[in-house]
Every structure is written in C-alpha cells, then in structure tokens.
Amino acid sequence: MQDGSRLAKFAAELGFTLDDFQVRSCRALEDDRDVLVCAPTGAGKTVVGEFAAYLALEKRHTRTSPSHGTCFYTTPIKALSNQKYNDLVERFGEGEVGLLTGDITLHPHAPVVVMTTEVLRSMLHSRSPLLDGLTHVVMDEVHYLADRERGAVWEETILYLPAQVRLASLSATVSNAEEFGEWIRRVRGETTVVVDEVRPVPLTQHMLAGGRLFNLFSPTTGIVDDTLDRYIAHRQLADAAPPPGGRRGRRRRSTTPVPAGGDRPEIVARLEAEQLLPAIWFRFSRSGCDAAVTECLDSSLRLTEAAEIPQIREIADQHTAALPPADLDAVGYSDWIEGLERGFAAHHAGLVPAFRHAVEDLFSRGLVRVVFATETLAVGVNMPARTVVLERLVKPTASGPVRLTPGEYTQLTGRAGRRGIDEQGHAVVLWNPDTLPAAVAGLASTRAYPLHSSLRVGYNTCVNLVDRLGLEGARKLLDRSFAQFEAERSVSALSDAVRANTTVIDDLEAELADAAGFAEYRSLYERLTVARTTASAETVTALARAVRSHPGHRRADRVHLLATAGRLAELRTDTRRMRAEIDAVTGRLRDTFDRTLAVLEERGYLHLDPAGKSAYVTDEGRRLGRIYCTSDLLVAECVRTGAWAGLEPCELAAVTSSVLGESRQRSTGASGSTTPAVDEALRATTRLWGELAATEERHGLTVTPDPDPVAVKAVHRWARGDGLAASLRVAAESGLSPGDLVRRYLRTLDLVDQTGLCRRDALPPVSFTLT
C-alpha cells in the first residue's frame, strides 16, 4: 500500500490492519472501478463501504469539487439503515451523514446518505435532484437480489444507476460470484470481483443431545464424529423400545415441543456453564421466540449480576422514552424489562422498534446474554455472538414447512464468533428424531449458494421504464437484466448446438443445390413414402410411376442425395425445436412485459401506437409510477376511479392499509365497523380488485393480492389520534402483534403519501422508530 495513496490515509485512521481482500476491494474503488465483494458474515466487508464514503467525502472537500462528491449507502431493511447511520456518524461525524428510510429524513443533502434500496430505486425513477453530484453507491447485502418479494429492487437499481457512479456491492458468500460479477461488468463496465471464503473467526459445529454437547465433526476424519453417531443410534433404539410391562404408557403431549436434552432454561444454563454465551437462539416463529422468553421468566434463570441492572434499565429507558406509560403497558413492558434485567430477550419483527433497538444495544454491550430470534436477525444487523443455537432445521412458510438450505444455514450460523473477542465461534444444533447428524453435516459442509435473479416485470416497473426510456429502450434494458443474462446462460448449450446445426445445414443445402432438378425428385419421393401408409393403391401407383420416370431417378448418386436430404430434414426439425426452446426461455421476460403493457393500455395508463413500436405514459401512468407496493395498479385504480375520493385522512389510511399485501395471516371476516365512508371505500376497492383480477387472468398474468381488511380498524384508530395503546387493543383482536401494526402503519403512511390524495404529515407520526 503506497503511503501517499488515499487508501493508505484511510487505513491509518482505522486502528487495525486491513485484510488482503479489503485492500484489493478498496484499491478497485480508488482506481475508479466498480467492485463486488463476497465474504462471510463478520469478515469486515463494510470497511469497503466506508472507504467508498471516504472517497466521496474527500472529493466533496477538495477545492476543485466543492459540490461534487456524494455517497449513498443502501441497505435492505430500515433497522439496518438506522444502525449503519449511527455507525457512519461515529466514523465521519453527524454533519457529514444523512438518513432516508421513507419514514425518517435526516440531513438528505449530506455528503454521505444512508437509505433503504427502495428509496434509491424511487429516486432513480423520479430523477431526484439529490442524485446530482453522486459519485459512489454502496449496496450492502446485495445478495438480497435473490429475494422473491423484493429482489427486483436491487436488480433495477443496478441497471438504472448512471455509469459514472462507482458501485460497491457487498454480499455474503455466493458460489456464482464470478457469474454475477460478469453480469455487472456487462451492464456497468469494468468491475473487480473479490471473493474471500475464510471466516475471520473459525466456526466449530456441535450437536446437543441428552444434555451432552458433542462435536459434529471428528477432528481427525472430518466426517460426523463416531461418538455422536453411536449416541444418537443408542437414543433411537431406546426411544423405540416399549416401556417396562410390555405396553406403552400414555403421555400428555405438550403444545410447545421441548428440545431433546432438557428444557430451554436448562440448555441456556448449560451453555453458560460451557462458556458459550452470549448466544443467539434461532426459532422460526415470533410466538416461539416469545414462548421461550416466557419459559425463562417462569424459571429461576438469571444471567446478569445485580450491578448490571441499573445500566440495563437506563439503556432500556433511553430507547423507550418516546412511549407513554399507557403504550408501554399495552406492549408488555413489565415482562420485557424483567427479561432484560435477567439477561434474555426476544428479537423479531413483531416487537415495536423501540424494544428491538434496545435489545440490539444491550446485546452488543454484553448485558443481554441470550436472544431468542427469528431469522430476520441474520440479515445484516450487527449482533454477533459467541454461539448460535438452531432448535430445528425446518422453518414455516406460507406454503408449508420447508427445510433450511445450506445458504440459509450458513447465513444463520455466520453470526457466531466475534472478531477480536472470540478465538472461535460455535454453532449448536439441538438434536431431535427429525434432525440427524448427517443432515446437519450436509448443511454445514455445502458451499454452493448460487445467486439468482428474482426480477418481476410489474406495473410500476413498466410505466417507469417506458416513461424514462421509451418502448424500445425499455425492452433493451430488460435484455440487459440479470434475469435475461441467466436465461441466456441456461440455454447456451442449445445455442451452441443451433450454431453447429446451422453450419451443417448450409453445407447440405449447398450440396443439394448443385444437383440440378433433384429437389423436385426428392419431393415426389417423399410424397410416395407418405402415401404408402396413408393413401389409396391408385394414388401410390401414380406416384411410383412419376418417381420412376423422373430424371433424378436415374442419377448414380440418387441414394446418397436422398440420404443427404433426409439428414437435412432431420437437422431442420431439430434446429426448429431448439430455437423454440431458446425463445421460450429467453423470451419470457419480454412476453411478460408485453402482457403487462396490454393491461396498462386497457386501463389508460399508457398508449401504444397500432404498430407497437412506441408508447407514451399518461398522467395516470405517471401517478402509478410513484406508487410502490405489491398492489400498485389496484391502488392507482382506486385513485383514478375516485373510489377513495372524499375520505378524511384517517379514513384514507384505514382503507389504504388493506392493499399492502403483507398479511402473515388472512382475516376471516370484517375487521369491525369504522365509518360508513370506509366501509363503502372497502367495497369499491374489492369491486375494482375483481375487475382487475379478471383482466390479469385474461392476459395470463399473476393476479394482484386481494384486499385484506385485517388492520383497517386498528390503523383507523391510530390515524385518528387514539394512540398506540388503543390501536393495539384493536389489533390484538385481529391477531396482529405490536410490531405488525407499527410496520403496517409506517407502510400505510408511505402509501398514503404516494397516492397524492393526502400528505403523510396529516396523520399522526411514529416517533420512536429511530433510537
């Protein structure tokens, strides 16, 4: 590293030595190249993002470019944006860093601005003036591009980003990093791909069974440890044997399964005795996390010292200061604070943000020793632990339970091992009859985590593409997408075969063309061949006479030429089949785009010329281009037709909450009375959804989610000023947790603002999301 380089100056301020992969990544940025960095969790990828911010700040503060030099640091979730904002403020100073998450705006004109990726995508669509002077963009957790629901945002952003902006993409380890990097290189220019697969803190894999902690792998053979295998086999035999007396006793089943080897408080105590705390215990349901905390509260478990309790309470008070006492009571403050004071807590999206942030703060300080968390904690939030516990290897989904993939297992266990603190991290899987050592070993040993496109050509995307690039420009951009890149890669062997066939076909056609008049003979010969199995004897006799009397029948090379013609016909058929397969794969994106355009034209959001060569977006289409949600066209239809006209702000918020498309559970009926205007607007919304769904089915598109009024009454209560406590009581009747309601209300505020019918500041804000 050259002493006079910008990287050398940056590194000198860090207080630690950069790893080789960090140096290579930062040098790429310093040399004005894009960079894709793939490294394990905790390896230090964010240093590369901080160097991008450093370069932008340096450019901003030079005398030659006082107004040029801005870095946008994007993350997949608001909680991570909040955390990264605090980190960068500590690194560069409060005046240099801003925050934009949709519901929070702080110093948007700062030289370094942290935001969710959706905010940047929206800015690119709207050509925001904040883009002026942009020199660097960091896309943290860029592997989110594969997320089925939100991944398209990352892909669109990479495609839209101006070529002169340097892009630093930070990803967990993926097995097709070179392929992904090749696509970025194709659409953005010179890109350096840096892959580092070495964990900064080695990870030891364990299995806990019968109260005993086993190593999963033998240190000598590298396969499942014999001692563990023998113990599990013994347990399986013992469990299968009938009880004494020859018959099985009846045992009352618990509704909450207890892990093999003891109840949860006992296992936590065992981990403490083995010096394996702090730990993150992953359970894949919010209720499961809460139930585990309740079990610990009902036990004698205590993981803290008396001297730590005042500090714990002080930090908790700082995070909850904006919540009035009534709201604290409504969200279960007393049990929550008792758990914190005893050293354990839950962490999931069902908690109000203030509680989640407090848990993160306390855990990072070592004051909370065990967190029972859903997998959302694995998404970038900086809460490393010494140990990660996995209770099961199956997680619930909307379509039923599914087993963890190797990539998910690695992402979860990647939180184990604190750099600079722990000599090694520990992953502990709890044994049960459905979780065998070989299955765990398979997950832990697999290193193939490919990254695939999840680009979805939705209505908002279509109108923004056409409005910005025109019809042909939109099609060309889709042709440059990672989705299309992968599609073309998947049929590359077929494309090679088509090219080889085409060369042979050209040669055979040339050979047959040199045989003057033979084409007519070949046609007669083929007709005779078919007629012998399908036609009358009279027809066969006539064709046979015509064949024998044709000059081609007397050619010495007749047999060879007929064989050549037969081979030519087979090659043509085979080539047509392969081309059809290629078109079916590579044309899907364009086909979906064209079908979507047809729906938009029917509804008046854009106009296509009769030849389909050009299009322009209407004013209603531009409004649709500013609406970002799963049901974007339904929202636009409600605005266009006046279904939501004349509503009070609180009524508009209530109705809008029904079209967010994010319910974890569908409501079983009406959500309770609000106002006649809300009820009528909901009926109109449902009628419009029915019309839209029929149109989508006719055009072969995925149907927009139907409206769900599960949160309507609770959002209405909050929006009219009744407060969080009153709203939570209503939400509980519909099965919504506090965190569900808070997140839904925040998204409702965003969507209300996007409709243009009401400004979000006409509704009560959520003042405790950033702490």
Short summary of the structure?
The chain is an alpha/beta fold and 771 residues long.
Please give a structural write-up.
With 771 residues, the chain is α/β, with parallel strands linked by helices. The chain has four domains: 6-195, Rossmann fold, CATH 3.40.50.300; 203-243 and 254-445, 3-Layer(aba) Sandwich (Rossmann fold), CATH 3.40.50.300; 455-515 and 557-618, no CATH class; 627-762, no CATH class. The strands form four sheets. It has an eight-stranded mixed beta sheet with strand order 4-3-5-2-6-7-1-8, with helices on both faces. Helix 14 links the parallel strand 12 (344-347) and strand 13. The longest helix is centred in the last third of the chain and has 29 residues, at 558-586.
Strand order of the largest sheet: 4-3-5-2-6-7-1-8
What is the tally of beta strands? Answer: 19
> Average pLDDT value?
86
What's the domain count?
Answer: 4
Q: How helical, in percent, are the residues?
A: 40-55%
Structural class: alpha/beta
Give the uncertain stretches in residue-range form.
247-255
CATH topology description of the largest domain: Rossmann fold
Distance between termini? 39 Å
Q: Provide the CATH superfamily of the largest domain.
A: P-loop containing nucleotide triphosphate hydrolases
Silhouette? globular
Number of helices: 30
Q: Mind telling me which CATH architecture of the largest domain this is?
A: 3-Layer(aba) Sandwich
In CATH, what is the class of the largest domain?
Alpha Beta
Strand content: 5-15%
For the report, how would you describe the main beta sheet? 8 strands, mixed
Radius of gyration: 32 Å
Pfam families: DEAD, DSHCT, Helicase_C
Keywords: ATP-binding, Helicase, Hydrolase, Nucleotide-binding
Domain Helicase ATP-binding: 26-192
GO molecular function, one term: hydrolase activity
